[in-house]
Amino acid sequence: MGVTYEMDEQATPELLRTLPSRMLSQVAMYADRLAGERLGAADARKWHYAALVALRASGPASQAELSRRTGVYRSDMVAVVNELEERGHVERAPDPADRRRNVITMTDSGRRHLERLDELIAGLQDDLLAPLTGPEREQFSALLARLLAHHSRA
Amino acid sequence: MGVTYEMDEQATPELLRTLPSRMLSQVAMYADRLAGERLGAADARKWHYAALVALRASGPASQAELSRRTGVYRSDMVAVVNELEERGHVERAPDPADRRRNVITMTDSGRRHLERLDELIAGLQDDLLAPLTGPEREQFSALLARLLAHHSRA
DNA sequence: TTACATCGTTAGTGCCACTAACGCAACAGG
DNA sequence: CCTGTTGCGTTAGTGGCACTAACGATGTAA
Predict the structure, then answer these.
(1) Which is nearest to A49 in space by CA: A21, A28, A70?
(2) Rounded to an integer, what distance in angstroms lies between the CA atom of residue A45 and that of residue A37?
(3) Beta B90-94 vs B102-106: how paired, if at all?
(4) What is the pLDDT of residues B101-133, one digit of tens each?
(5) What is the number of H-type helices and E-type strands within chain B?
(6) pTM here?
(7) CA-based angle A33:B26:A30, to the nearest 5?
(8) Which among A3, A62, A148, A153 is the top mutation candidate for probing chain B, defined by the most B β-carbons within 10 Å of its own β-carbon?
(9) Residue B104: strand pairing partners
(10) Which of A41, A134, B95, B140 sits in a 20 to 30 Å window from A113, CA-based?
């Protein structure tokens, strides 16, 4: 796992090495890679987790609703639900009240799967923030939250 | 610019909304998008900037050297140098001392271009960190630097 | 009825990280 | 002097993700 590629950190120009946007991208890349690897080992992807969490939080929902709640595009949600359905973690049924919709329901298998993923994701946060102390992690999260709030408002 | 997609922030489960790895990815995504848009408007890409900064910092270099200094893959550096060459920002010449290598040299046009990009990138940092105070920006950068250092050591 | 919006779905774009393999050139050791 | 190894530039290709466009079917409102 990890990168096989040899990059010379020392030789990287100071300007580049200390650029916030660049550090941000790199740390995020590392986090994404780690998440991808671990979720992959559990036969899952980021979006599976997001969808399952949304289902647990608010109960059965249409694909479009899941899309809104997770930020996954409606068009990509199709594949996510397909994959979760193949693995028996959700069921897809037409909504009798609105025949445009599918109702997605989490199965028991899905609930168990989600619990495993919860632990996996929690461990991930821990490894991601490993070099920081408790208060520093709070700090970091709070700053991220503010940046996110600022940049995601319409 | 920005996203046309409608995501319901309110409906996103707490667990998901406050997950550090997720916030990190999202903020990074926003930063990347912003960088892509602005650099695109200046007929450039992230990698162009990285390569030019490396050339300014340490003078002419082979493509492999630029690759190591910027973190851009050797295979992708080909296109970067192609594009910079097309635009007249660098020159590519065979290295007489080692005929495997190309020597990449920045032109005057490249230097002027880089100065424009410097300003553009500086403005970007400012917009990215807009909601944070001066000390908070320092904090945030320092935390990122520590995370990066931790995760990029062999 | 007409117009419009929403839903699931398919297809496709573009960017980026990353791998594999190629022919060529340099180099180190026996 | 050969020989295996390493480094170089380059090509091609993979897979994931963000994102757009358009479709037919269905629901809602003017």
Answers:
(1) A70
(2) 9
(3) antiparallel
(4) 999 999 999 999 999 999 999 999 999 999 999
(5) 7, 2
(6) 0.91
(7) 20
(8) A148
(9) B61, B92
(10) A134
